[in-house]
């Protein structure tokens, strides 16, 4: 019995037989399902499934792919198959705030987030020491209105050269161009420091203070071309009261941002996320 | 030693001596402070205080008022003094949804909310049986675009005749006129079924569904002339995920709305709330 | 296409093919799966599955049962099949505290909890009016050390006569005999007003006060012969602080108890719960 | 107007005049109260107060102390006075798990926790690199049953030599001797990875798994001679379900432990904690 686990994800229009298309084949081929989640979206008439499995005997990946493709075509499925221990290459982008970066690096170096980090990119030099200590290349790419196009080209080159699977905006305080957003669609995660859709845009903690809210939160979402409007992956929250000045909300928010962003990254690398319409299906898990 | 407790609230511009203005007099007059909360708002330069006390010996209310008024004038304080067991007269307005009404009535009849309810007003007849069982007069005042002015006049008459201290909009699905809002300013509490400022206006649970939020909540706020923009008193929240259809969000939200609204009403009748600028200072408590 | 949904639950020792045993047959027989949850317990080597489905055409229940029984025998499955709108008969037992009863009755009369309540049993007469208003028979069965055996016999008769599927101890302040617990095993739910396993036994809020805990909670669990040790179904919690006296913890706890117990009852009637070893598998849902 | 803030804490038996004893003198001496919290414990008949203030003009600390001592003697008060920016010397003790240490060091190096860390002590060598990167002396003091007395003597010497104000057990997996506990009474904080009083002792996450709890948490408490029974400072919690194996509970618990311990340390250094009887009074704040 193999210890290597695999993850199969698929989605397609709702129709009879979608579950069996996956589970039936896994059974026929002697794959032992260790975790199975599915969702049939009644309103959008779309079906999503994620199966984690381990072969009972040897596993012929190509044969499995060929067999599954037949079924996928029948049902109009888009699908992915990959080993569960596949290490995603994650490029992290930051500015000056280091709490999210520090948190991600801690989870990285302790193996809680089993990823590779080929590059940290920043428009400021401040966080280089932290990158150095983790032996991660740090690219300081300053940006101004005039240099924005060139800077983004440089960023894009690093992302391409490092073959990044995912880009994480860990409090990167620059608005990406529409072109850049489009190129990163579905593989860039941002942390916004408010409970979206409340308090979009700049200085959300100050907005929250003015409004006198009694809860403060953070939202991890996929980047799309609509600022702070990308599909929501996960949100965190804590209660506050009138005694919180904007700097207190900011401090309280830091812990929420760290945990929320780390959770979103983990969901992504564990292939628990499906983008559909403007929403994000999340097959959450233990943790 | 008296068992009768009193509640003193005061607020004024920030300045040296504001705490002592309250605590010093209470001490001099032999009042035993059982609970004291204060807040000096550094950004708005305003001071708020609430003291609950019981007289060690007899209590001459008028003498206390006269003595405190001297201090209040010195500091420019607005203040209130009342026995802690004062029963507020609360008029409840509803439409067809009964969960908030049912919850308030339960707390009323068991004494958890020590209030009087002189009237329940509705634009629908549906909830009369519930009011009847609690022996509370139920006023069915239907409303149309044409009759709105007259209906509000009728509502206002009931509020006045019953000498209501507070009006609670317990899922009353009509927008009050600007005039009505102004008249009720500072003594009407609404429950909105979203985490304001997200999802203002109609059908917030449907908006939340479309947006794919991962948290759903409710907001109790004072009514003002700006729809769903009144000062926030308290908010409640629960996690949700992609499997929640709008009707599931609605069902989940019901429990949150009940608890959130009841808490706001309790805060008000315990004189824990101060309106200032667009924000609400909340001296919350055990419970 | 039928609108009638069915629920199939099954569990058996872990082995290859357990998922397919369910999903394969459903597919072959033209059943459309609307919700599917499964769990393969790696440590206890046991598999659990719950499928909600609706027939695409007519549904021959007996034929389906016969076909599934063949598979069930092969895998050693225990299983149940029932229409999703099956109305459980729920007997509620109470003493003097009415908050949980009031909450359950509210959900009952509004259809949120689609159950029948053939009887409310109490060792006190206090809550009869509440039962009467809902047109539910109220049995006042006082209990003393001497009459306990007879009282339980009377209780048991009511349970049997009403063909109760579930007994809910909604703050019933009597310890059931070991014999009674055994008879009710797997179909009686109790609400305990603490976060078990902390503060078992009497007066848990007072114990919590003495201990100075900063969180207070409630636990809904199946009744078994070990007092307050039955498998945990769900737990609720709220933050507290040093200002909470025992009566404040009690008041705070009431809302938690209501929501927690109602959730546990709903899980049970929706067939989301599996008892295994000392633990309870909970296929939770939207809500 | 001075920018230097001071913190005054005091407690004494409940009696008339305790608030005024503090607030009256502050007013007379021209001290501007920026934050005031008090609690009169009705059941234990004890009074607690914490005032943060800044002098309007120059501040003669000794004169203030002399004046306050007169009042303190009258009321039987124990009290402390210190500048709000006083840097506590905090010795951290760890074993092999580094998540709490990493979190504390992050808050330390970014100034979120304004403390000095004169020493990190461990019974293992593993975490030396982390200490080195922060330029903090790391003392590797292995321990066995035979060497326990000597090891504790060495630990004690480091604590004394560094003039530590506080000792933080950041997942130090050794039980301190009764003597050591006594010496550290009131100035040592431990993080226990369960919701005390549930799951005392070893392997609490495994105990929680066996019990099938639906919430997992952590408890920061003062160390006393009764293992895992010291006064609770603060607790954190997250929901879990049946899919969490012990290692998943452990992973989930890590984030809770970090935040909970850091909060307890901050409360301590901000002089927000009072030990009384077996309970801990916590004047919590914004954050």
From TrEMBL, chains A, B, C, D:
<dbReference type="GO" id="GO:0006189">
    <property type="term" value="P:'de novo' IMP biosynthetic process"/>
</dbReference>
<dbReference type="GO" id="GO:0006730">
    <property type="term" value="P:one-carbon metabolic process"/>
</dbReference>
<keyword id="KW-0658">Purine biosynthesis</keyword>
<dbReference type="Pfam" id="PF00551">
    <property type="entry name" value="Formyl_trans_N"/>
</dbReference>
<keyword id="KW-0554">One-carbon metabolism</keyword>
<comment type="pathway">
    <text>Purine metabolism; IMP biosynthesis via de novo pathway; formate from 10-formyl-5,6,7,8-tetrahydrofolate: step 1/1.</text>
</comment>
<dbReference type="InterPro" id="IPR004810">
    <property type="entry name" value="PurU"/>
</dbReference>
<dbReference type="InterPro" id="IPR036477">
    <property type="entry name" value="Formyl_transf_N_sf"/>
</dbReference>
<protein>
    <recommendedName>
        <fullName>Formyltetrahydrofolate deformylase</fullName>
        <ecNumber>3.5.1.10</ecNumber>
    </recommendedName>
</protein>
<dbReference type="InterPro" id="IPR044074">
    <property type="entry name" value="PurU_ACT"/>
</dbReference>
<feature type="active site">
    <location>
        <position position="228"/>
    </location>
</feature>
<dbReference type="InterPro" id="IPR041729">
    <property type="entry name" value="Formyl-FH4-Hydrolase_C"/>
</dbReference>
<feature type="domain" description="Formyl transferase N-terminal">
    <location>
        <begin position="89"/>
        <end position="264"/>
    </location>
</feature>
<dbReference type="InterPro" id="IPR045865">
    <property type="entry name" value="ACT-like_dom_sf"/>
</dbReference>
<keyword id="KW-0378">Hydrolase</keyword>
<comment type="similarity">
    <text>Belongs to the PurU family.</text>
</comment>
<dbReference type="GO" id="GO:0008864">
    <property type="term" value="F:formyltetrahydrofolate deformylase activity"/>
</dbReference>
<comment type="function">
    <text>Catalyzes the hydrolysis of 10-formyltetrahydrofolate (formyl-FH4) to formate and tetrahydrofolate (FH4).</text>
</comment>
<dbReference type="InterPro" id="IPR002376">
    <property type="entry name" value="Formyl_transf_N"/>
</dbReference>
């Amino acid at each position: 019995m193999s210890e290597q686990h695999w993850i199969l994800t698929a989605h397609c229009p709702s129709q009879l037989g979608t579950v069996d298309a996956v589970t039936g084949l896994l059974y026929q081929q002697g794959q032992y399902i260790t975790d199975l989640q599915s969702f049939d979206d009644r309103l959008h008439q779309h079906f999503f499934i994620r199966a984690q499995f381990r072969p009972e005997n040897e596993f012929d990946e190509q044969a499995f792919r060929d067999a599954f493709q037949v079924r996928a075509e029948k049902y109009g499925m888009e699908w992915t198959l990959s080993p569960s221990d596949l290490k995603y290459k994650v490029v992290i982008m930051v500015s000056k705030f280091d709490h999210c970066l520090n948190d991600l690096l801690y989870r990285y170096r302790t193996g809680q987030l089993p990823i590779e980090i080929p590059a940290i990119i920043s428009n400021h030099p401040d966080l280089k020491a932290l990158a150095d200590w983790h032996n991660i290349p740090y690219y300081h790419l300053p940006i101004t209105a005039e240099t924005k196009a060139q800077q983004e080209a440089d960023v894009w080159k690093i992302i391409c050269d490092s073959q990044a699977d995912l880009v994480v905006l860990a409090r990167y305080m620059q608005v990406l161009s529409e072109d850049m957003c489009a190129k990163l669609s579905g593989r860039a995660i941002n942390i916004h420091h408010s409970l979206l859709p409340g308090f979009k845009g700049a200085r959300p903690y100050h907005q929250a203070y003015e409004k006198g809210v009694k809860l403060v939160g953070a939202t991890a979402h996929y980047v799309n071309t609509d600022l702070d409007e990308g599909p929501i992956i996960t949100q965190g929250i804590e209660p506050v009261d009138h005694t919180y000045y904007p700097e207190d909300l900011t401090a309280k928010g830091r812990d929420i941002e760290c945990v929320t962003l780390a959770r979103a990254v983990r969901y992504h690398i564990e292939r628990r996320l499906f983008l559909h319409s403007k929403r994000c299906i999340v097959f959450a898990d233990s943790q």
